[in-house]
Write a structure and sequence with these properties.
The chain is α/β, with parallel strands linked by helices and about 280 residues long. The chain has twelve helices and eight strands. The relative contact order is 0.14.
Amino acid sequence: MSLGDQPAPAPATRTPWQRVQNARHPKRPHTLDYVQRLLTDFQEIHGDRAFGDDAAIVCGPGKLDGIPVMLIGEQKGRDTKQKLLRNFGMPKPEGYRKALRAMQMAAKFGRPIIALLDTPGAYPGIDAEERGQAEAIARNLREMSRLTVPVISICIGEGGSGGALALGVGNHVLMLENAVYSVISPESCAAIVWRDAAKAELAAAALKMTAEDLVKLGLVDGIIPEPVGGAHEDWDGAARLLREGIHKSLRELSGMTAQQLVTHRYDKFRVMGNFFAAPL
């Protein structure tokens, strides 16, 4: 039985490994599937004005129920041709630089930013390293912390390490119910810790990578529910729930000034990993 044919367990009984499988489901909606259902007047931006375009990241202005926004998202493919075009959802430096160009444009025109995270990780190829992969990610982290508009980052599938975090410095960081977000994949973790990638299921539980775990740890602000069976069972229903989650965040952030948004974002990330009683 293929992954696409497996019946989805009830949400309350899903193990972390089953969440990983759901996040990777071949029929799970990707960024452009949500764009079609959420935005009107979407105009995709191409190129980083330095090297080229990266189809693993799509971005551009559009309207969410009449509200002007800037949407940025990581895009996977479905068939072989699309997967190669999108580099299996693994961005290169030009993708992150294109995303930063879009974010700076949003700040200039006062548009809230919606970032959809869905990648197994940044592309580790030699060409990406030669063009400054680590620098591009680091620059995004720094510049996102300074943006003067609301930033809402939502993990819609896989949130893989710095590849996802480069779009994840948000005032609100949310996850879909069956998404996963981690510094490393379960397979890679198992290969390092136990020298056996087959122990990925054990690693998935140890990594605390599910939405519930990350909310408890204070690393994620909230969980957006999915339709019964998972987002892959009902794209329209998943988009409707995602829309509600975005609107809720926009309402909460709309009353903040530019400086308050920057301070809110800084304070939020500054306390992550702080286990001391006194604030740093």
